[in-house]
């Protein structure tokens, strides 16, 4: 087990995972608000995905008041101070606004459905105090794109989910064909192994494989978004959704991805309307 120190907290690596432990029982970090629920008369319990401390929970006293109501909106980025008497105790947060995205997302219902899905996935899938800095930065970029770029974000959501799978130990191997070792014309993914299969190798049993949209293997979204069809994006989300479902069934069998289901319904309607409009031109 290796250890490093970040902002007063010790980061331990255990079985390939970074676990945060703060011996001082106090830390300050930036975090994305994932969810909140009322606790008592005036307080709320929040879950936040922080850069250096992973997913963390804590109580905010006075969280239902007018001053905090606009700050404590899912998707907003906060400056959080966490305090507790022991590591096992539910700590208390003090929160200040850093980046407010919720207002922009409320004006874009389609993007709001995607943000709700991403935040819910993080809240369910990530263990507490497990550090995922690359995923944290990718989530920030995704939330910014949702608010600012309606043409690109559906493609980014599929790629973000692919990255989430990697972070939670269900990463897909799309580098080469599992059967032949070929690195070109990869068209399928094995539902058992999560490895890519080429079109030629997969042809005899293609009906038992998952289609692999080519955009999931590309590296840039902004230059190719116009070239990716709605059907391909839905196919990419169907692929990531299959493996997210496998993860949930194994690790969180009682969890329901209702927010993701709503996002998929929104995107299906969006692309159906687009196809109908293009068909009349």
Brief synopsis:
Helix content is 38%, strand content 26%. With 281 residues, it is α+β, with helices and mostly antiparallel strands.
In percent, how much strand structure appears in the residues?
25-35%
Number of helices in the DSSP assignment: 8
Instruction: Give the biggest beta sheet.
Output: 5 strands, mixed, barrel
| Cα-based radius of gyration, to the nearest Å | 20 Å
Share of helical residues: 25-40%
Task: Please characterize this protein's 3D structure.
This protein is an alpha+beta fold and 281 residues long. Among the domains are: 78 residues, OB fold (Dihydrolipoamide Acetyltransferase, E2P) (Beta Barrel); 114 residues, no CATH class. Helix content is 38%, strand content 26%. The protein contains eight helices and twelve strands. The strands form three sheets. A five-stranded mixed barrel has the order 4-5-6-8-7. Strand 10 and strand 11 form a beta hairpin. Helix 7 runs antiparallel to helix 8. The chain is globular and about 60 Å long.
